[in-house]
Amino acid sequence: MRAYRWDGSSLWLLDQRRLPAEEVWVRCVSAGEVASAIRAMIVRGAPLIGVAAAYGVALAAKEAAGGPFPDGAPAGDRLVSSLEQAAGTLKAARPTAVNLAWAVERVMRRLREALSQEPAGSRGAAATAATAVAPDALARIAEEEARAIASEDEASCWAIGEAGAPLMPEHGGVLTHCNTGALATAGIGTAAGILRRAVARGHSLRIYATETRPYLQGARLTAWELIRDGLDVTLITDNMAGYVMQQGFVQAVVVGADRIAANGDTANKVGTYALAVLAAAHGIPFYVAAPYSTVDLSVSSGAAIPIEERSPEEVTHLAGMPIAPPQVSALHPAFDVTPARLITAIVTDRGVLRPPYESSLARAAAVPPAR
Ligand code: MRU
Fold it and tell me: What is the ipTM of this complex?
């Protein structure tokens, strides 16, 4: 299962707003269109918006490679500023998941490096640095880096799944929140990847998927993709989590992440924090699963993670239908922060990290990424 396709000149995205009712693909041919698709949640999930944005930069580079170059030479400064502008638009599409800015910056770093190489024979010449590389070569470099980001994410998902599967009960219930699967990544998923690998290894799991108001990623996406894989999924509304834990139905909780601060505080889909508090109250292990690209060591604690505020209309309406009086005000933070002290372990492609997270996260920075 793949939620994106790259055909060499456009990025195709499976419109996640319309699942599970319809499988509709949306074509993006510019960085601006990719940024709009990210904002509109056509594509979502921290790793996958990173992959999509990386291809968005590749589209901007392709566009730049097309000219116009009136004097036959690439207009260096215009080229650089159009790429930087596209990168800025993509990074601003959604603020919380660090994978987005990380992926855009990774492609831009390759482009800046290429642009700063002095062309052979021009040493000392007045040529601007930005004219050193042919624009079509630039487009190829961007595309190559986007492909690398996608294939590394696929490998990361597999590594997370393999590292996390042994943490799952042999027989029992596991609660998960939002969607962290193939619709949120370029591979088998993070938390969902752990569930997939555990079941493949013979664990008998009943998966409790929270519906995840207001976007219903759990009901519409997690249930859809895990049932397609033959997993045993039971859907609950978000406010049933306490009940299923109290009844002893749940032996572990595993969720994804949008940004993990240097101290282990983790931003993830709103509602995650409440699940962590409930898990702690019931003595249930609470695992976070994420590729290392979700770790942001530049942010010391969760207090500094920007939380995306989305339209209150997404709360007051369900599938376009009003479910509240028009006068009511509504709050819509898309994410919340779970303090590190509530997290039993963080499962990454670089291994299972345990508290204290300041040191385990910092040490993992030196571990090579999964390939
Ligand atoms: O708003 P969304 O659907 O992009 O939020 C997604 C989540 O919060 C996921 O848990 C997170 O991005 C990890 S996806 C592997």
Answer: 0.99
